[in-house]
Each structure stands twice: as C-alpha cells, then as structure tokens.
Structure to design on (532 residues):
C-alpha cells in the first residue's frame, strides 16, 4: 500500500529519552516567566479561535456558533446554530450533540483581500443523516455579519446514534480542528472514527482521516499520488482514531497532529503524505474476537481500569504488526490517554528558549488509575530531525482546566479555549 | 429552663457546625474529583452532563448505583471507578454540596 520513507519514520521514543538524558544541564532550556490570565469569560464551550494581525479574534462556541471579538472588546455574533438568536445569520441545520457541534475555525490566508473564513460544524439537512461540514463564509468589512455560505465539504461522517462504548453518545469522535498550512497553502481537516470500525482503513469515506483541500474544497492535487488506489482524493492521511489538533512547524511546515488514545496512548504524529496512522478497531482480526457494536476501540475491557500497557498490546493505537509502514508517533504520552486536544507552536522572542517550541494541550481524563493530567506540554522538536529535545509542562499560574484549543495570538501570547467557558491567555516575559 | 436553653443552643451549634463541615467536605471532594469533568459550577462540559439543579436524592442515588458497579448511561465506565471508594458519608456530603450550591 505505501512505500514511503521519511526521516520521521526512524524516530523512536527511546531515542528522544536518550537525547534528553544526555543533554548537559547548561544546554537545557531556561523557563521563561509565564503568566496565565482569563482573557474572556462567560462563554459556552468555546472550541477554537483565529486571529487577525490587529488582535481581532474569531471564536467558536460548540452549541452557539461563530462570533468575533474586536480589539476594543466588542463581540459580534456572526453565524448562529439551531436554537440561537442575535446572530447576523442563523443556520437551522447546524446543531450540537456530545462532542460534535461547531468546532474549528480558520481564516483564509488572504483574508485581508477576500474576508473569507471557514468553520467545521455538524449539520442536519432535512431528513438526511447528519454530517460534518466545512463551511466557507464571507465576513462583512465591519466584521458585523457573515454571508455567502458555501459548504465546501459536505459529507464528513458524524456518529448518528449512541453505542455501547465509553463516551458512547451520538456525535462522538468527531475531529474538527481546521488549519491552513502556510507552507503549501492548503486547508488541513482532521476527522474522527465515530466509534465506527469501517472508517479508519477505508478510503471511500472521510472519517478517521486528515483531509487536505483548497479553499473551494477541492483535493490538493498531489494527495492521490501518495494514498492507496481508490482513496477519495481529498485524503492526505488515514487510519486515525480522533484527531483534534493540527499545527505546522514554523520552519519546515511539517504537519503535526494530536490524536486521542483509547484509554491508553495519546499520540503526537508527524504526518507524511499518504501516511497510515495504524488505527484499526475492527473485530475478528489482529487476534481479537467480537466486540460491542462492532468496535473494539476500548477492548479488551472497556468499563474497568486496566494497565494501559496491557490495553496497548491488545488494541494498539498504531498496529505495526498489521501495518508495518504505519507512521510512528513522535510521542505517546507515556502510554496514557488524557484527552490530548490541540497543538500550536510558540513564536516570539519573549518566549526565550521556548521560541519555536510545540505546545500540546490536554483536557484531562481520570479513568482507572490514569492521572487526570490537565495541562499544556512544551515540547522542543528538533527542526531538521525527528527528535524531541525537551518535554516539560507549561506553568499554570491560574490553575488547570479542560484545555480544548490552542492558538498563538498576534501579540505573541498563547491563547487557550477551555471547556469551562473561558479563553485563557498565556503571556511570556 | 436555663439547662434546656443551653442544651438547645448546643444542639443548634453542633447542627450548624455539622452542616458547615459537610459542605466543606463535599466541596473538597467535588473540587478534587468531580470538577474536572462536570465543571467548577457543575454545569457540565463536553460529554459530561450538568449536575446543576439536581436534588440531593438524585445525586446520592446515582453515586450509590455507580459505587455498586451498576451501569447507567454512556459514561458509566468513568463513573464506576470514581465512585467505588466513596463512603456513605462522602456521598452524603457530595450530594448536599452539589444540590445546595449549583441550582
């Protein structure tokens, strides 16, 4: 299926540890002074943000829709979901349930000339099954309204009904972050597996994938060169479980994603074109028997605490035995699943030694004996190789929270959407 | 008469202290074990339901059900291990704290 090589493949966690341990203290990074403050409060499940250079911040709320905060603090409500009022446009088909709703937001790289914005949202049109859509909109010059809705991707799978699984409600494993890669100019759209084992390894659907498309929703022309025959041309990578974070290395533009693990093994992956992330929760294969509702994702024991290492052996996040060419994760969160949610790169001299470092957020999940782990990790990725030079935690002067989305602001601060209804700002000096 | 009054005052004092202690113990348990998913104001987050407006008897009944290892709802797998080690007193304190403070 795949025969690609990348320097990233040769990486292993053991290598990272060895490198870290061998660094003399003098070469290890000095921690900048970081303060954490509440930037916005009183929101409902804020999910993602996107900034203009002057500090204007677009943000989504999972069950309400898209709004924009102007630099003077004024908030304009732009695209409202079903049941909302006070928005410049209300779309009755947009709805939320469980993990699904209005998720990611991204600004067109040419926003200053085309005023175009994109959101990812669950949608139910008439009697048709609900799907996730990537929606393109035009923002008015005064940033008070949106118009010209155009759904550039219409059929990203949405979990229709509850199943017998942890977090088993409809709308589960819904992906949803969207980001433009400044390197190639394409929009990257990570999706989820919907607790449906027929999605990850099959290219006839858009679930469990990272899509790479242009601003009209067309496939990036080179996608199909790298994916297996017959795959939908919009697919960039496949075999993912549930990807909620994507960021691009500031120098190499290497796409880095975060992938939620199944009671074990959150993953940080460096994507290669056509790569398989190796998630395949089908029953009756790879040593497994039948599973609840045909999905083995939480087996062998989906309701009780269990050693994550034992889980990993039975239902691996990346199944190298079945897929020897699968992308090897950069990091596996010490085999824990703690709700890895988003990623961004710190930029600006005020971050000192942390300038250019990857930040990765966690919602926190306390299952079995796993520590809850609400935090933000600061990871030093070697720019020219697959090596983690350093991995430590961001100091949280205002305390932990369910960190959902990370975005760098134009002021050089890191902004974090938290499920508690706030947007936090981390400022370095 | 004086003795009865003193006795009544003592009972009132103890009762107030007990109530305060219950609330504090419930708060401490809530913040360390529940708030990370149900939220600091119990209004629920992500896949985790709101507890606001629930009667103490409802909270108590659910926690006892989970403690017994019985499944109820999609998040039983998370709640059963969390409730397993709670004492009757813990459950009473949590139920009182949640129902009194998040309406």
């Amino acid at each position: 299926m795949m025969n690609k090589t990348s320097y990233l493949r040769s990486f292993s966690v053991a290598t990272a540890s060895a490198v870290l341990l061998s660094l003399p203290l003098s070469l290890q990074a000095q921690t900048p002074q970081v303060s954490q403050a509440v930037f916005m409060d009183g929101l409902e499940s804020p999910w993602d943000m996107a900034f203009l250079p002057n500090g204007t911040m677009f943000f989504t709320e999972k069950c309400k829709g898209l709004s924009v905060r102007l630099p003077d603090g004024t908030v304009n409500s732009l695209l409202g979901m079903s049941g909302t009022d006070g928005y410049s446009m209300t779309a009755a088909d947009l709805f939320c349930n469980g993990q699904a709703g209005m998720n990611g937001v991204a600004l067109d790289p040419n926003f200053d000339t085309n005023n175009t914005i994109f959101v990812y949202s669950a949608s139910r049109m008439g009697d048709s099954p609900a799907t996730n859509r990537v929606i393109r909109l035009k923002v008015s010059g005064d940033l008070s309204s949106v118009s010209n809705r155009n759904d550039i991707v219409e059929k990203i799978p949405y979990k229709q009904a509850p199943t017998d699984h942890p977090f088993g409600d409809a709308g589960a494993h819904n992906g949803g972050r969207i980001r433009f890669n400044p390197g190639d100019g394409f929009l990257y759209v990570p999706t989820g597996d919907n607790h449906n084992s027929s999605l990850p390894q099959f290219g006839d659907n858009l679930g469990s994938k990272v899509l790479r498309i242009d601003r009209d929703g067309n496939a990036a022309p080179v996608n199909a060169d790298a994916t297996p025959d017959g795959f939908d041309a919009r697919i960039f990578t496949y075999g993912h479980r549930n990807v909620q974070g994507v960021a691009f290395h500031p120098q190499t533009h290497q796409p880095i994603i975060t992938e939620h693990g199944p009671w074990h093994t959150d993953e940080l992956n460096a994507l290669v074109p056509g790569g398989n992330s190796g998630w395949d929760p089908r029953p009756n294969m790879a040593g497994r028997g039948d599973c609840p509702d045909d999905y083995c994702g939480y087996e062998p024991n989906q309701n009780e605490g269990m050693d994550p290492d034992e889980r990993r052996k039975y239902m691996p996040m990346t199944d190298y035995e079945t897929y020897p060419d699968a992308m090897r994760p950069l990091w596996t969160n010490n085999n824990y699943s703690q709700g890895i949610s988003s990623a961004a790169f710190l930029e600006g001299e005020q971050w000192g030694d942390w300038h250019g470092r990857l930040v990765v957020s966690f919602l926190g999940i306390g299952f079995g004996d796993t520590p809850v782990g609400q935090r933000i990790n600061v990871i030093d990725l070697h720019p020219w190789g697959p090596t983690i030079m350093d991995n430590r935690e961001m100091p949280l002067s205002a305390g932990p929270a369910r960190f959902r989305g990370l975005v760098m602001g134009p002021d050089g601060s890191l902004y974090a959407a938290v499920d508690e209804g706030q947007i936090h700002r981390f400022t370095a000096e | 008469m004086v003795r009865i009054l003193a006795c009544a005052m003592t009972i009132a004092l103890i009762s107030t202290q007990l109530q305060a202690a219950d609330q504090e113990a419930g708060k401490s348990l809530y913040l360390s074990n529940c708030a990370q998913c149900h939220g600091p104001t119990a209004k629920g987050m992500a896949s985790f339901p709101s507890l606001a407006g629930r009667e103490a008897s409802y909270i108590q009944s659910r926690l006892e059900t989970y403690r017994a290892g019985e499944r109820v709802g999609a998040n039983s797998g998370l709640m059963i291990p969390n409730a397993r080690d709670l004492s009757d007193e813990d459950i009473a304190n949590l139920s009182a704290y949640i129902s009194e403070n998040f309406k």
About this structure: The helical segments of chain B are 2-33, 35-38, 56-67, 76-83, 88-101.
